[in-house]
């Protein structure tokens, strides 16, 4: 488990309630570098809240699509990018997701030991939201050869996996590298950045996408940090510390980041959807292997007397 220093507070935060059960938080910081963050805090008990993950299609597991296009296609109120995917980079719009994925109860991508192991841990945990909006972190059950079963008594319905769990029990759980002399770690040194304990992929400031849960598992958090538009990216230890300390996030997974990081939302007044963060790929966001859509109802405003 990695340790981290406290992230000082020097910025500003705005809070809005665009839909029933959804709080939108926009936050900036000036230390330890310029930071731009967006977060949706979702009450899983609120009437009208539901979710849908990109489903299987195409010649691989899914067909790549921008987060904004997925939101518009689903007529959802918000959407965020989700799984890491392959092949990338590639002009092939057909993709294979890395890790467990379930859409509408169809478990179509399995836990796995990815070939890329300097950032992605083997059999990374997933976050599952069942049909009744009961959410939990689920883990690979090695007793089944297909990799599509979990140890917990959970009904897999909408399941999202990332590179690793970065908050566990309200504390940072950033994975470390397998290196002598103790050889204890979940990641393998190497990769294009020659990553290691002294040069962790998780500690390079970058655009980040994170999904998390409160301690009572009744609040879901969708978080993004920018590395463009004035933001200079975040270390995942910084993300974990901020989410646990300031928002009570108890469990969290790191999802696909960098140029994939996208959080989109419909304007409740106009119905027009837009990207909330600043994509470091292109203004319309990257076409990614999977997206998570959020459905909600408009906030009713009492008429003036």
Number of strand elements = 23
Return residue spans where pLDDT drops below 50 for at least 5 consecutive residues. 1-9
Note the main sheet. 8 strands, antiparallel
| Overall outline | globular
Beta percentage is 25-35%
Distance between the termini: 57 Å
Query: What structural class is derived from the secondary structure elements?
Result: mainly beta
Question: What is the typical, i.e. mean, pLDDT?
Answer: 94
Lateral strand order in the biggest sheet: 1-2-3-18-17-19-15-16
The radius of gyration computed from the alpha-carbon positions, rounded to a whole number of angstroms, is 18 Å
Figure out the total of helices: 2
Helix content: under 10%
Helix and strand run = EEEEEEHEEEEEEEEEEEEHEEEEE
Number of domains: 1
Please characterize this protein's 3D structure.
- The chain has 305 residues and is mainly β.
- It has one domain (12-23, 33-223, 233-259, 279-295).
- 7% of the residues lie in helices and 34% in strands.
- The chain has two helices and 23 strands.
- It has helices at 67-74, 236-247; strands at residues 12-19, 22-29, 35-43, 50-53, 62-63, 65-66, 78-81, 85-86, 94-97, 101-103, 106-109, 126-129, 135-138, 158-161, 164-168, 171-172, 208-214, 219-225, 249-255, 263-266, 273-275, 287-288, 291-295.
- The strands form six sheets. Strands 1-2-3-18-17-19-15-16 form an eight-stranded antiparallel β-sheet, with helices on one face. A five-stranded antiparallel β-sheet has the order 4-23-7-20-21, with helices on one face. The protein has a three-stranded antiparallel β-sheet with strand order 5-9-8, with no helix packed on it.
